Every structure is written in C-alpha cells, then in structure tokens.
Amino acid sequence: MLGKNKKGGWIGVGVGVGTAIAVATKEPAWIAVGIAFGAAVIAVSNLKFYKKEKK
Questions:
Q1: Residue 54: is its pLDDT beyond 70?
Q2: Are the C-beta atoms of 36 and 15 separated by less than 8 Å?
C-alpha cells in the first residue's frame, strides 16, 4: 500500500483500527490517534520515496 497512488489508504486503515479500539475502550480519542498514525505513515513513505527519486 506504499505505492504512489495508494498512500491515502493508510488514513482509512488508521481510522478502522482507531474505531475498533474506541469501541472496545469507549474512548473516542483513539479514532484521532488512528488518523494521526495513518498520516504519519504517509509522511514517512513520502520522505522515503522522495529520497529514492532524488538520487
């Protein structure tokens, strides 16, 4: 899922995991944590691909 056009899927994965944890713990803040995790994965993957393309 780290391909050029599929990076946005990580936010969906984060939302899904965050929602599952939020339902289990009854703490809605986990949804925001999931979104942040998905965004962080996208940011890291962008840096990784940017460095490869730059060489």
A1: no
A2: no
Q: pTM of the entire structure? A: 0.72
45: phi then psi, degrees, rounded to nearest 5: -70, -35
Predicted confidence (pLDDT) at residue 4 exceeds the cutoff of 80: no
Separation in Å, CA 12 to CA 16, 34, 51, 55 = 6, 9, 25, 31
- For residue 33 the two structure tokens come to 């944590």
Is 6 in contact with 33 (CB distance < 8 Å)? no
Model confidence at 52, pLDDT cuts 50, 70, 90, reads: low
User: Which residue is it, tokens 């942040």?
Assistant: 36
**CA atoms within 13 A of residue 10's CA, in its CB half-sphere:** 19
